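Title: Comparing notes on inverse folding

I've been comparing how different people in this forum approach sequence design from structure. To keep things fair, I'm posting one structure and asking everyone to reply with a full sequence. Here's the target:
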């Protein structure tokens, strides 16, 4: 018998769950060749965040772990963060929009935030397993009054998957959330490596070294 809206659904104990952190590269949707949305999916996000906190404490690091913040002095700390990410159960992914090839989702009549939501939803659909319940923390995106980026993304994902696979989604200030900063690190590294292929970014720069370490 199909489940109706009035019937309770009990999720089995130890059913797979995940928390997904999402952020885009520093390149805005309105400029630049590449627009990249990065994601870090963790089944044990608490352990990952505690490991990142340990790095902050040991180095008294108070800056953000964003790709744009990488410098010569900060590179060793960022390398530690990348190693922690690699050693965790996290799955990283990215969705790349090359505005010079194929259809540009930002070139139509739709609002920029709505096009951004579609790209984000496409990424989430690709990394959420069918047998899994997920939640997502997204970097804040400006929207008109009465419109919510997080609610829109959640609805898009669940319609595509024909299930309530993304149980909840919420926008947060990335400056206050290390997980979303890790997603920015992923997005920035992917965008940088795409720039290397286009000869607009150097693989031997500090950012290039961090991107290579993340890709290894």
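Reply #1:
Here's my take.
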């Amino acid at each position: 018998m199909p489940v109706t809206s009035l019937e309770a659904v009990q999720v089995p104990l130890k059913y797979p769950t995940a928390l997904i952190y999402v952020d885009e590269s520093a390149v805005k949707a309105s400029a630049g060749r590449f627009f990249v949305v990065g994601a870090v999916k963790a089944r044990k996000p608490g352990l990952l965040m505690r490991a990142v906190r340990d790095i902050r404490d040991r180095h008294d690091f108070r800056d953000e772990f964003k790709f744009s913040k990488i410098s010569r002095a900060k590179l060793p700390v960022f390398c530690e963060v990348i190693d922690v990410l690699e050693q965790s159960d996290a799955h990283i992914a990215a969705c790349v929009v090359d505005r010079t090839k194929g259809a540009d989702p930002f070139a139509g009549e739709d609002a920029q935030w709505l096009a951004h939501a579609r790209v984000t939803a496409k990424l989430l659909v690709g990394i959420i397993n069918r047998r899994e319940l997920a939640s997502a923390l997204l970097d804040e995106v400006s929207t008109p009054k009465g419109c919510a980026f997080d609610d829109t993304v959640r609805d898009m994902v669940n319609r595509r998957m024909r299930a309530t696979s993304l149980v909840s989604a919420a926008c947060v200030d990335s400056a206050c959330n290390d997980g979303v900063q890790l997603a920015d690190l992923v997005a920035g590294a992917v965008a940088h490596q795409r720039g290397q292929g286009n000869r607009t970014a150097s693989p031997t720069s500090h950012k290039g070294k961090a991107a290579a370490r993340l890709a290894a």
